[in-house]
Amino acid sequence: MTAPRKGITRQEAVRRVLQGMSDDSAGYAALQTLLEEQFQATLQHQSTRLRALAEQVTAAVEPLDARRRQRVSLVTALLGAQGDMPQLFALLQEDARSKAEADWAALEQMVLECKRLNTRNSDLLTEQYSIMQRVLHGEEDTYAPG
């Protein structure tokens, strides 16, 4: 195992990882709400609302990504390049380890759900755009010889 970054103890590095996980849980819950709002605004063709939501989604994702990068950096500093979260959790005492593992599993599920919602929203927007293009410009093969 390697030592954590200069000026930070191993205990502080682990604390920061665990705090980041907690912050991410709240962040992904907020992102999930925004993605649901985005879906409803898409269904209702609310372009002004969609622009505002796009900005909010971007603002919500930025700290999530920053905490992910910090987590990777701290785990790498503690455990080396091949270090991962299960190895980090193994450093904890039983009660803390069990909680951290459960929190991590829940966080992973939140990430997957947000990815699913984002894909759903993207697919809907793409389909709406495609329909609008066909309405405005007609089918490409509508007047093609048979």
Q: Can you give a write-up of this model?
A:
The chain is mainly α and 146 residues long. The protein has one domain (10-137): FlgN-like (Methane Monooxygenase Hydroxylase, Chain G, domain 1), CATH 1.20.58. The chain is 80% helix and 0% strand. It contains four helices and no strands. α1 (10-43) packs parallel to α4 (94-137). The radius of gyration is 22 Å and the shape is elongated.
Could you name the key traits of this structure?
single chain, Methane Monooxygenase Hydroxylase, Chain G, domain 1, 0% strand, elongated
Mean pLDDT: 92
Order of helices and strands: HHHH
Principal-axis shape:
elongated
**CATH architecture classification name:** Up-down Bundle
| % residues in beta strands | under 5%
Using DSSP, what is the number of strands? 0
Helices and strands: which structural class? mainly alpha
CATH topology: Methane Monooxygenase Hydroxylase, Chain G, domain 1
Quick one: biggest sheet?
none
Low-pLDDT segments, ≥5 res: none
CATH superfamily: FlgN-like
Radius of gyration: 22 Å
**Regarding CATH, which class?**
Mainly Alpha
Summed up, the helix count is 4
Question: Oligomeric form of this entry?
Answer: single chain
Instruction: Indicate the percent of residues in helices.
Output: over 70%
How many domains? The number is 1
